[in-house]
Each structure stands twice: as C-alpha cells, then as structure tokens.
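Q: Convert this sequence to structure tokens.
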Amino acid sequence: EALEGVPAATAHDASVEQGGLSQMFLWFSLLEIIDGLAIQQMLEGSGRQPGDFGLDGGLLRGKSDAYIEEMKLKEITHCRLAMLAFSGVVTQAVLTQGPFPYV
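A:
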C-alpha cells in the first residue's frame, strides 16, 4: 500500500526510501554466496556443468545428448526473448510515466 499510485519508472526510488529493497538485497547476497560456492566446486573438477544447479527435477535424466542440447538452446532463446520483452516494458513505463498497462 505504501507504493500505491507510484509510477513504475519511479517505483525503485520509492522502494529504496521505504526500505523494502534492503531485505531483498540481503537475500540475493546470500544466494550469490551459495552460487559462488557451487562455482568453486565446479572449478575444482566436481563435474558440475555451468548453470546446472540440479533444479530440473530429473526431467532430462535419461535423455539423449542431442535432446539436452536442443533444450539448452531453447532455454537460452526464451531467456533472451524475455529480456527483450522486459526492456520493452521498462521503456514504455519511462515514456508514458503512467501506471500499468502503459497505454
């Protein structure tokens, strides 16, 4: 409720002033530390692939190498498309200075 009516383009600054982003910063810092430990293990030869945190739920277990490579390519493609879409949302928010849906 504290951010109600705040345009999306200025919501970040309002959130910083409110103090809500400090907790997010701390949690994300903890996740980065854990990520750093996983990277260190990978560099020491654990056999772990870059970006593989074991969160696939076993969906790729027993699949062919070609299928796994195809899914990796799809993941990268979809992530890049999502980043472009988000940049479009940010651009619309700044240009319109209004609330969602920015029309």
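The radius of gyration is 19 Å.
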